[in-house]
Amino acid sequence: MIPRYTNPEMGNIWSDDNKYSIWLEIEILACEAQARLGMIPIEAAEDIRYKSLQKKLFTVERINEIEETTKHDIIAFLTNVEENVGENSRYIHYGMTSSDILDTCFAVQCRQSAKIIMKDLYELSKVLERRAKEFKYTPCIGRSHGIHAEPMTFGLKFALWFEECKRNIKRFKAAADEISKGKINGAVGTFEHIDPAIEEWVCENLELTPASVTTQVIQRDAHAQFISVIAMIGSMLEKISIEVRHLQRTEVLEAEEYFSKGQKGSSAMPHKRNPISSENISGQARLLRSNLIAAIENNSLWHERDISHSSVERVIFPDSTISCDYILKRMTKVLDKLIVYPENMKKNLELTNGLIFSQKVLLALAKKGLKRQEAYVLVQKSAMRTWDEKIPFMQTLKENSKLMQSFTEDEIDELFTYDEIFKGVDHIFKQCGIK
Prior knowledge:
The chain is mainly alpha-helical. Helix content is about 65%, strand content about 5%. It folds into 3 domains: about 1-95, Orthogonal Bundle (Fumarase C, Chain B, domain 1); about 110-190 and about 215-345, Fumarase/aspartase (Central domain) (Fumarase C, Chain A, domain 2, Up-down Bundle), CATH 1.20.200.10; about 355-415, Fumarase/aspartase (C-terminal domain) (Ribonucleotide Reductase Protein R1, domain 1).
């Protein structure tokens, strides 16, 4: 059976040879189901299966040659198979329509591709978990609007991505299950010329489930969901890539992509080490999102079907799955070998002369009994002086006579530590399931 005995790489899944191999398996399974029901001779079904095992019953070249005349890919395929099967070929495709083959095959291809992407997601999650634990207590600056906010730990960044990766695994599994549905029910989905037991047999042997109700085609909302989750996976990867790209900026340099021996960064400037993998991932993620628009548009077809969706899917599904597989593997490699500079994180933590402790001072004033807004104005006055005059925040606080009515100098000193940023880390990691 195609899904059980082959494990093609992502590009090969969408090859003509793999597609026609699945078409043939669907046709043979349908014949075997009909033989089980007594609709065709058992010997005929056995003969077709035997011949398929002895030699290839089609060639891509011959199908293309026939299609030049027929202008119909399924008929070209069936004609080529008939040439190699002989008399018993009259039982092939009995009571079936083209979309029975096309949509069921498409479900198999999507399921094959989903297995690869799911494996990629698990590999990424392992790296994210490992590096989250590695930097669990490594202090770094947290940024909002690109501006220094408060201290955090570098491990929390990885924990955040790990949790999102887990959500995408859950989403993708649901989408893969939803798209893993076949149909063998005839021209408008009514089973007029074929028994439902045939559909059940074919789907069971292809690791699919029968679609509950169809027109001539399986409805494309499930396909849009599949592409939607792929686009969301791309969005997650772009989120990570943007962070890496910022952290690698010369002025920041808290982390950078691994730069291998012999690698070159610029044709003009020998010193350059650029985040090219992360930039590539950002670009590919844009393509994944753009393909989602086309997938959603594909859901609206005329009456029981037209083929406006077909040409679109021949582009967006190979492109999206291949690209998703590629950037998942590339991001896993980037993060696995990401070079981290804790010393630069410490240096950057100190860039604002202690302003990152402003909320601790604010809350301490509130505990002293001041109204929040009154306390805010007092702290902000010292903070803006530090910002403008580049004087240490601790000094401007101690020189703020009104504020110091509530503090001793030792109490101010005690507020300027990183200790409290660690107290919630264990709780967060526990919630993420990182041990």
